[in-house]
Design goal:
The complex is a heterodimer of chains A (about 375) and B (about 475). Chain A is of the alpha+beta class and about 375 residues long. Chain A has 3 domains: about 170 residues, Uridine Diphospho-n-acetylenolpyruvylglucosamine Reductase, domain 3; about 90 residues, Alpha-Beta Plaits (2-Layer Sandwich); about 70 residues. Chain A is built from 13 helices and 17 strands. In chain A, strands 3-4-8-6-7 form a 5-stranded antiparallel sheet. A 4-stranded antiparallel sheet of chain A has the order 11-12-10-13. In chain A, strands 15-16-14-17 form a 4-stranded antiparallel sheet, covered by helices on one side. With about 475 residues, chain B is of the alpha+beta class. In chain B, α2 runs antiparallel to α4, α10 runs antiparallel to α15 and α15 packs antiparallel against α16. The two termini of chain B are about 30 Å apart. A 7-stranded antiparallel sheet of chain B has the order 15-12-14-13-17-18-16, with helices on both faces. Chain B has a 5-stranded antiparallel sheet with strand order 5-6-10-8-9. A 4-stranded mixed sheet of chain B has the order 1-2-4-3. The chains are: A alpha+beta (about 375), B alpha+beta (about 475). At the A-B interface, β7, α6, β9, α7 and α8 of A face β9, α9, α10, α12 and α18 of B. Chain B: It comes from Roseivivax jejudonensis.
């Protein structure tokens, strides 16, 4: 089913007699396997409103991310939360949609400084499990009118409602970016260097550590963005501040060039490598110990150490390996059998799980929207 | 503004309820004497007052849980209170309710510079969070103007903003985790020092829920390294339209100031008379502040001044030193005090799309003329969050009602142009009955469904946020069942 309007989508959900598999561009495929009739939002497309002077963009949920990025780029703006393109990592085809980005709360390296996808969401329209059309938030930057269902919808993977429209805060794209790279740091030293950088006033917008680097040598990357002179100044100050970790190489990139950060964002290191991929969110200083316990075949650290991507043999129960920890682990890549056998999302403590179940029952009382996907 | 009739049965059981509370808490943590409960009869929305049945001031999460368990079992409504600085009546009691204040829970529990987080008890004031880390070069970004007095608990309940959110975001963007107690006494942990939610973003849902989903007792907050420096520039313009266009051009040019403040002529005059900050006599004034090293500030202000010159400013003044910066901010920061000296006022908080600024200011002017009242406008222009101040005389019978009528019309105007009723103060009781102007029945139903999940008996701060007739069936279901 591929409705071309919100009304049609609402009627389809209201009339559904069994489970629906909600799909944007079909490029993510995260979660427990769901069997049912596919309901695609890909025909709900178009940028409904874009006001560069107000840093605001409203688009139908099925609008391709590329279309939005092109429109923003023409005005020197961008989606600051740097959403991951999952196709390479998950080996999928298709066109990523803005609704899919929001449903997954997909945020890249700049999350540590600019915030997550959810922090840039101003409003949503969605169809709940009864077919009712609901709007929440709006198109303005500051809004505390009623409960924030916008945040609830971000990262709910189509289990509470089918997004039909999203309003986003956008930001100016920088004139220049510079990447400082350090070679050969251990994970502990890398996390310490990244912490020192993020604790400085130089506005670091990316902090990643690639233990295998590009040629087998560990690489620690720090990104600075902004006006040309300012970037040059802060990059030098940061290099001086971090002298104890070695002398950083500085590579400069014009505003639109991603440099090494597209590979960090999309976890390119694991694209052609076998096994399951887990995404672990932790307190940065806990990262080295948790990574050791994961005993992974491949690791990528983002968010100053706060995000660990771990590649392990297919079927590995990573949570069992690392034991109890503060944070959460999500199985991002795994075959259907593994995703059916292991909880894809971090199991919640009983009182929190009761609230999540309660919300599901309220927003989708018949259990037709991606049932079981997040359970 | 109406509140539901209090439950006479509960009021009749006051002595019993108080004695049960006294068994749970230290003697000085339960206040039931009518003279003392009067201190809690209102918050900063002082036009509405009602002493509660009792006030409890627990000292720990366990004590909060014990009180909530009791009130849940006894069917007693609970009104959470931080520092009582809400401008929306978020902490306004009813006569049958217990006020649960977190004012005694003020400890810093953990400061962690490596991970850039601080964990505090939520009775701690906003400014003292920054106070705990500033010597080490860090700060907590959200800065509501009541920051000297307001508590983190209230900031979380209302998702408070401030003057610097264009760059740093509001409370929800700086809140990483909470310890929260739901109405049945269950203690929950949401989030932590790590980023983003494991499942549904319940933390994002709780922030801004106006104390209706649970009572937050501890919070993990993101702290940021202080910028090297900051400097404001002041610009005067011959019309609101031109100032509005200048704001839009600054944003489009790719500069992201930390603050863009806007004042119109009535506000400039009042502030100048009060604070003598040396503001120009003009129709509209902008204060734009940028951050960074000296050279970076020079560069950004250079761009901003170049844009401003294209709009023919009547004044363009950059602070040469800290003293001049202080004077530029002085008038703006004394705006509310200046108004208070001339008159009583109601402070509105609607947000509009920035592009609608000139049109909205013109319409506010004609609405004010229709009502025969004066409105001064001061607001955060970068994010469209307006604070029209409606001036009136509370001693003139009927004038408060007239001012409230004008306020409601201005907020409806904000909604009509694509904005919202409240940008940072919250709905509380003040804007409760206007919610149906912004949201359709299905939209409100979805929000109330969330409260049904967290607080099925609707005992926590029940008569707020949703229009009374819209929430009535839910609020009275418990009474009907008894």
């Amino acid at each position: 089913m591929r409705p071309t309007s919100e009304e049609e989508l609402s009627a389809l959900v209201a009339e559904a007699s069994g489970p629906l598999v909600i799909r944007g561009g079909g490029t993510r495929g995260i979660g427990r396997p769901v069997t049912g009739e596919v309901l695609e939002t890909g025909a709900l497309t178009g940028i409904a409103l874009y006001e560069p002077g107000a840093l605001t963009l409203v688009a139908k949920a099925g609008t391709p991310v590329a279309e939005i990025e092109a429109a923003l780029s023409a005005e020197g703006q961008r989606l600051a939360f740097e959403p991951i393109d999952c196709r390479g990592l998950l080996g999928r085809e298709g066109t990523p949609t803005i609704g899919g980005v929001v449903a997954a709360n997909a945020s890249g390296p700049r999350r540590i400084q600019a915030g997550a996808c959810r922090d840039h969401m101003l409003g949503v329209r969605f169809v709940d499990g009864t077919g009712a059309v609901v709007k929440n938030g709006g198109r303005v930057m500051k809004n505390v009118t009623g409960y924030d269902l916008v945040k609830l919808m971000a990262g709910s993977h189509g289990t509470l409602g089918v997004l039909t429209e999203v309003a986003l805060k956008v930001l100016p794209a920088p004139e220049m970016s510079a990447t400082l790279s350090f070679a050969g740091l251990s994970t502990e030293r890398a996390v310490a260097a990244m912490s020192a950088a993020l604790g400085s006033p130089f506005e670091v917008t990316g902090a990643a550590h690639l233990p295998d680097g590009s040629d087998g040598t560990a690489e620690t990357l720090l990104r600075i963005e902004g006006f040309d002179d300012s970037v040059a100044y802060r990059a030098e100050r940061l290099r001086a501040l971090l002298e104890a970790f070695g002398t950083a190489r500085i590579d400069r990139h014009e505003g639109r060039e991603a440099g090494p950060w597209a590979a960090v964002r999309d976890v390119a290191a694991f694209h052609d490598a076998p096994g399951d991929v887990w995404r672990i969110s932790v307190k940065p200083s806990d990262a080295p110990a948790i990574a050791r316990a994961a005993d992974a075949e491949g690791l990528v650290f983002d968010w100053g150490g706060g995000l660990i991507w771990a590649r392990v043999p297919a079927g590995t129960d990573l949570r069992a390996r690392i034991g109890p920890f503060a944070g959460h682990a999500t199985l991002m890549r795994g075959d259907e059998a593994t995703r059916a056998a292991l909880p894809v999302f971090q199991p919640e403590p009983a009182p929190v799980a009761a609230l999540s179940d309660g919300l599901r029952q309220r927003f989708d009382p018949r259990g037709v929207l991606n049932p079981g996907l997040m359970a | 503004m109406q509140m539901p009739d209090p439950d006479a049965v509960l009021i009749g059981r006051k002595a019993d309820i108080v004695s049960k509370l006294e068994r749970l808490l230290p003697a000085d943590a339960v206040i039931s004497d009518i003279a003392e409960t009067r201190a809690y009869e209102c918050d900063a929305l002082t036009a509405y007052r009602c002493p509660p049945l009792a006030v409890v001031l627990p000292g720990s999460t366990e004590e909060v849980a014990a009180v909530l368990r009791l009130c849940h079992a006894e069917g007693v409504p609970v009104v959470p209170r931080g520092a009582g600085t809400s401008l929306a009546g978020g902490a306004l009691p009813t006569a049958d309710s217990v006020i649960l204040g977190v004012a005694r829970m003020t400890e810093v529990l953990e400061t962690d510079y490596n991970n850039r987080v601080i964990r505090v008890e939520t009775g701690r004031t906003n400014l003292s969070v920054t106070g705990a880390v500033e010597e080490d070069g860090f700060f907590y970004a959200p800065d509501p103007s009541s920051q000297l007095a307001c508590a983190i608990a209230g900031n979380i309940a209302m998702n408070s903003g401030g003057a610097h959110c264009l760059k740093y975001g509001v409370t929800t963007n700086n809140l990483l985790g909470v310890t929260m107690v739901t109405m049945d006494g269950t203690v929950l942990e949401l989030g932590g020092a790590h980023l983003d939610a494991a499942g549904y973003d319940l933390l994002g849902l709780v922030c801004g829920s106006e104390g209706q989903l649970g009572i937050v007792t501890e919070a993990t907050l993101r702290i940021l390294p202080k910028p090297e420096g900051a400097r404001p520039v002041l610009m005067g313009f011959s019309s609101n339209e031109v100032a509005g266009a200048c704001v839009s051009d600054i944003i489009k040019a790719g500069v992201l100031p930390v603050a863009i403040e806007f004042m119109d002529r009535p506000c400039i005059r009042a502030c100048e008379a009060f604070a003598k900050a040396g503001y120009p006599d003009c129709e509209a004034l902008l204060i734009v502040e940028v951050e960074g090293s000296d050279a970076e500030i020079d560069h950004q202000l250079g761009l901003i001044k170049q844009i401003a010159r294209g709009h023919d400013p009547v004044e363009l003044r950059e602070a040469a030193d800290a003293d001049e910066a202080g004077r530029i901010w002085l008038g703006r920061k004394s705006a509310f005090g200046a108004m208070g000296q001339i008159n009583d006022y109601i402070c509105l908080d609607g947000t509009i799309p920035v592009s609608e600024l000139p049109r909205v200011l013109t319409r506010i002017g004609s609405l004010a003329a229709e009502y025969g009242l004066e409105v001064a406008n001061v607001f955060h222009a970068g994010d469209g969050n307006m604070h029209p101040l409606i001036l009136f005389n509370a001693n003139t019978p009927g004038e408060l009602e007239k001012a409230e009528g004008l306020g409601a019309d201005i907020l409806r105007l904000c909604v009509e142009v694509g904005g919202c009723l409240t940008g940072e103060h919250g709905v509380g009781v003040e804007k409760r009955d206007l919610m149906a102007d912004q949201y359709a029945p299905a939209d409100l139903e979805a929000q109330m469904a969330v409260k049904d999940v967290f607080d099925p008996a609707w005992l926590l701060n029940p008569a707020k946020v949703f229009p009374l007739q819209v929430s009535e069936a839910r609020r009275t279901a418990r009474l009907a069942a008894e």
